[in-house]
Design a protein that fits this description.
heterodimer, A: mainly alpha, 72% helix, globular, B: alpha+beta, Beta-lactamase, 2 domains, 5-stranded mixed β-sheet, 23 helices
């Protein structure tokens, strides 16, 4: 009887899943709940419980998205990009009217951050562009400016907010896609080299307070009670965890409020203090396995759009994770972006779970030769 | 045009490169984390521990100061205080307003609190008020829920049971100054409840009295709130310092002296113990140890009676006739027998100048004993000229004048014992006969403090070089004898006994009414203005020009035990103002009941005089006022 049901068409399709990465994603999100439980001093309230509920909903969301045909994404890629771009402008205008910077739109049921959606939209839009581009045309002018426009319009808007972390994520995601689309090496190496060389010039053009920030990033101990406080405390939390951590619920840095934002941007430090190097390595490897799987999906896929989506979205999530981890370990300035799936907060989870949903969708249609 | 396959290969290649980027990034992250957690782990563990654990020093309980019999002169009273931890306070003005509903804060304090709160770093506390009393403490404990950062604490406050009577000897305590903290760098100095000695024994014996602070290890959060107590190491209280003073004697003396400007010293001739060291008027160390009110301080500084000055060691007076004892001993030490006589005709001529005896008709033929009893100037003029000024100065120094003593008082002014060498050095002029004569009767450049006068009396009474001491200790070895024949010394003592007890003595008011004990003494008058200006410093002149009254004494005559020195500023007459005080103090030693009775009478008379003065003033005011119409 049960065999009969399982062997029928729909249960077959539902059970046909890339279980390894899905279980890894569930493990990462679940571990996030454990860390948030400790960050609230051993309480499900206010973060862990809501994190779990939200995460459960987003797993369903991810799996549902994976059944959406790639055709659909191809069709809405540019309209979606346009809508998100308008929303970004809208946020900017709202901020100007209300005074101060604003990053989200209040939609009643959800607080939507257009810049989060833009991380996905820019990948979709550029993937679509390359999908229809003639082969080998990547280095020509008509094939250069549209992706650059797709990238720099939102980057400029996000920088205005100002949200450096998100801007860098969008930029890195977009450039990666151009790289995958076949951009000749000289277009990568020359601007890249020039960019590196111009850093000192850029530094000299900065305001005093900006220079100060850079200095403190390079040497946070210079100002352990002022601007370098976040980085210093984060490093103390990670370093004091040692090999196997202080134990669950025993992190003094997070529980005694020395660690700023222990449940959002610096959740990795909260985790590392209690779980030590072993916990950190475990979490990093779990992320790498999932994201590496995304790359392999790209390699296995036939259609250009599908390949670019799987690889590009994997790399976008990768940059997301990387920037956060570099920040908490003191290798990047404090830019204020969370650690996907572990940090408390809906926006980043929405972005990442949507990306995974699309990647699983690509995986489902990897053998399709036409969309 | 590249083929579809070329394009695929390029994509695959580049995806592999991205895979390499992921792997490399993963390696960098893991390597960095290992560096932080393993290589630097110990350093960061210490830093985390340093964050987590705060060391709260517990100020040590200050050692007691007790008198010779172990009665407390300075002790610690449990008290309640209020502190503020600025890092825990969200809104300082609102918090202060809330505090003010329970406890008034004067503007001066408020300014200080705001200033200190601004400078406070980390979880350190700022004192709001000391000694707030149980009611306020209880009120704050009840209302604490609404006042984050306000900490009522239990502390100790220095307490001086006898107040003013011991103000100058003991000094007082206070918060260390910012300079003192800078000098020592001792974190203890930053604790609101910590006090250091500011004057007197409290200051001189600071090292013994302080003790060692305890420490409370607590777990604190980033804002400085205490989350958990870890462990506590109790403080080590300071040592008890035992003084030679007699609490009862000094309290009695203080009451006897009242509001007069008086210095009084009593020394035990056998041990050198200072039994009483009183300088009045004085400050109340209980008030000074809390916070010195600015107005009170200003008043005391301006006061003519100098209540801020310990006159026993810092008040310098011309010794007047009390110095004749030194001249007498110098004469005897030079080998002049006490039976040598001088004929006093009331005047003494040197060249064209004439020096008068205070008795214009003269004392007739006087020997040493009579000269002391009658305080005959001419006798001492003659003798001083005979032995020379250096002999007089040497003996004065041997008796303790011009000397500093090893007692725990921060300041001693040694005064002056002039001799020809000193005069040349100080004023660049030669010593003249006039200088010899002035010095012989205790005038001129001589300056002594009351403690020195008491030591002089003690050395003369015992015939030994008594070394005064204020800190109690084992019985000292017998002091070195003075280089004077005992018989000769007896003559001087007899002379002093006659001053008090003999017919025509200058201080018969000092006679004891105690069976078997007699008092011997010598009066003195120290001019505040020079006689040559044509004034006498008697009752007819303004108070500040009146002469100081001096009296040195010892008792009992037969077996000297206690030496006394009394200086009454502007008291006019040694016998009227100073001698009765010495008499009453010695009476207290031998017959407490009688002394208390006479004290009651003195207090009553003082009260009556005050009322009469008030009535007179009121009457004068009424007479001056216009008469109201009938």
């Amino acid at each position: 009887m049960i065999d009969g049901v399982l062997n029928s068409r729909w249960p077959q399709r539902l059970l046909h899943q890339p279980w390894k990465p899905i279980l890894l994603i569930i493990a990462i999100g679940g571990f996030g709940a454990v860390v948030l439980y400790s960050a609230a001093a051993g309480s499900f309230d206010p973060w862990a419980a809501r994190h779990l509920i939200r995460f459960a909903i987003f797993i369903v969301w991810m799996l549902s998205l994976s059944f959406v045909p790639l055709r659909f994404w191809l069709a809405i890629a540019w309209p979606l990009y346009a809508v998100v771009l308008v929303a970004l402008v809208g946020v900017e205008l709202l901020g100007a009217v209300k005074g101060g910077s604003q990053r989200w739109l209040e939609l009643g049921f959800i607080r939507l951050q257009p810049s989060e959606l833009m991380k996905l939209a820019v990948v979709l839009a550029i993937a679509r562009f390359y999908h229809y581009m003639p082969r080998g045309a990547a280095g020509t002018l008509p094939a250069l400016w549209p992706p650059l426009a797709f990238i720099f319009a939102p980057v400029a808007l996000v920088l205005l907010q100002p949200d450096l972390g998100t801007a860098v994520t969008i930029l890195a995601g977009g450039i990666t896609l151009m790289f995958l689309g076949g951009l000749p090496w000289r277009f990568i190496l020359v601007p890249g080299g020039l960019g590196l060389l111009s850093l000192p010039l850029l530094y000299s053009l900065m305001h005093d307070y900006q220079q100060r920030r850079v200095q403190i990033f390079l040497d946070p101990e210079k100002d352990p009670l002022g601007d370098g406080y976040h980085i210093t405390q984060s490093k103390i939390a990670i370093g004091s965890g040692g090999l196997d951590g202080k134990g669950f619920l025993n992190g003094s840095q997070s529980h005694l409020d020395y660690l700023p934002e222990p449940h959002t941007d610096f959740v990795f430090a909260t985790m590392a203090e209690e779980w030590g190097l072993l916990g950190g390595v475990g979490l990093i490897i779990a992320f790498l396995l999932v994201l590496n799987w995304g790359l392999r999906v790209g390699l296995a896929t036939q259609t250009i759009f599908g390949r670019l989506l799987a690889t590009g979205l994997s790399m976008t999530v990768f940059f997301y994770v990387l920037i956060n981890l570099l920040m908490v370990m003191g290798f990047a300035p404090v830019v204020g972006i969370p650690l996907p799936l572990v940090s408390y907060g809906g926006s980043s989870m929405l972005t990442v779970m949507t990306a995974f949903g699309i990647i699983i969708g690509v995986w489902r249609q990897r053998t399709d030769r036409v969309l | 045009m590249a083929s579809e396959a070329d394009s695929r290969r390029q994509f695959d290649r580049r995806t592999l490169i991205l895979g390499g980027v992921q792997a490399a990034a993963g390696a960098v992250l893991i390597g960095r984390m290992a560096w932080l957690a393993i290589r630097e782990g110990e350093r960061y563990s210490l830093a985390a521990e340093d964050n987590r654990v705060a060391l709260h020093l517990i100020p040590p309980r200050r050692g007691w100061i007790v008198d010779a019999t172990g009665q407390p002169l300075a002790q610690n009273r449990p008290a309640y205080a209020l502190e503020l931890v600025p890092s825990l306070v969200e809104n300082l003005p609102a918090t202060l307003a809330a505090i003010r509903r329970v406890l008034p804060i004067d503007p001066e304090d408020e300014a200080r609190i705001l200033r200190e709160a601004e400078n406070a770093r980390g979880p350190s506390a700022v004192p709001i008020a000391d000694d707030i009393g149980w009611d306020a403490y209880a009120a704050f404990n009840v209302e604490l829920a609404g006042m984050e950062g306000v900490v009522p604490i239990r502390t100790y406050v220095r307490h001086y049971p006898d107040g003013e009577a011991f103000g100058h000897v003991l000094g007082y305590v206070g918060r260390p100054s910012a300079e003192q903290y800078k000098e020592t760098g001792d974190r203890l100095y930053l604790i609101p409840g910590f006090r250091i000695g500011k004057d007197g024994v409290e200051r001189s014996k600071e090292a013994a009295l302080r003790g060692k602070p305890g420490a409370r290890r607590v777990e604190v959060n980033a804002r400085g709130r205490i989350v958990r107590e870890l462990d506590t190491q109790p403080d080590t209280p300071g040592q008890t310092v035992q003084l030679t003073l007699d609490r009862g004697l000094q309290s009695f003396a203080a009451a006897r002296v009242g509001k007069e400007s008086v210095s009084l010293v009593v020394i035990d001739c056998l041990s050198g113990d200072i039994k009483c060291m009183l300088s009045m008027p004085a400050f109340d160390p209980n008030i000074f140890s809390n916070r010195i009110p600015g107005k009170l301080w200003a008043e005391m500084q301006a006061a003519e009676t100098k209540p801020l000055l310990n006159k026993v060691t810092q008040g310098l007076y011309v010794p007047g006739s009390t110095f004749k004892l030194a001249t007498a001993l110098a004469t005897l030490a030079e080998g002049v027998p006490p039976s040598d006589t001088v004929t006093c005709g009331g005047r003494y001529r040197v060249g064209s100048n004439t020096w008068h005896c205070h008795k214009r008709s003269g004392h007739g033929t006087v020997d040493m004993e009579r000269a002391i009893a009658a305080s005959c100037n001419v006798f001492f003029y003659t003798m001083a000229r005979r032995i020379g000024p250096d002999a007089v100065a040497d003996m004065a120094r041997k008796l303790g004048l011009g000397q500093e003593f090893d007692i725990p008082m921060p300041v001693q002014r040694e005064g002056t014992v002039p001799d020809p060498e000193w005069l040349m050095r100080r004023y660049d002029r030669k010593w003249t006969v006039a200088d010899t004569l002035n010095t012989a009767i205790g005038q001129g450049y001589l300056q002594t403090n009351p403690l020195q006068l008491a030591v002089m009396a003690a050395r003369l009474a015992s015939g030994r070089l008594v070394v005064p001491r204020l800190v109690a200790g084992p019985k000292p070895a017998p002091f070195t004898p003075l280089p004077i024949l005992p018989d000769y010394l007896d003559t001087v003592r007899r002379g002093m006994a006659n001053v008090v007890n003999g017919p025509g003595g200058t201080a018969r008011s000092a006679r004891l009414k105690v069976d078997g004990v007699t008092l011997a003494g010598k009066t003195g008058t120290a001019q505040v203005r020079r006689i040559s200006a044509g004034f006498r410093g008697g009752a007819g002149v303004e108070r500040r020009f009146r002469d100081h009254a001096l009296f040195v004494a010892f008792a009992p005559v037969e077996q000297p035990r206690y030496a006394v020195a009394v200086v009454v500023e502007h008291g006019i007459s040694g016998s009227r103002a100073a001698a009765p005080i010495a008499r009453d103090v010695v009476t207290w030693i031998y017959d407490r009941e009688q002394a208390e009775k006479s004290l009651a009478a003195v207090v009553q008379a003082r009260e009556a005089a005050r009322r009469a003065a008030e009535a007179a003033a009121a009457a004068a005011a009424q007479a001056a006022a216009p008469v109201p119409p009938a």
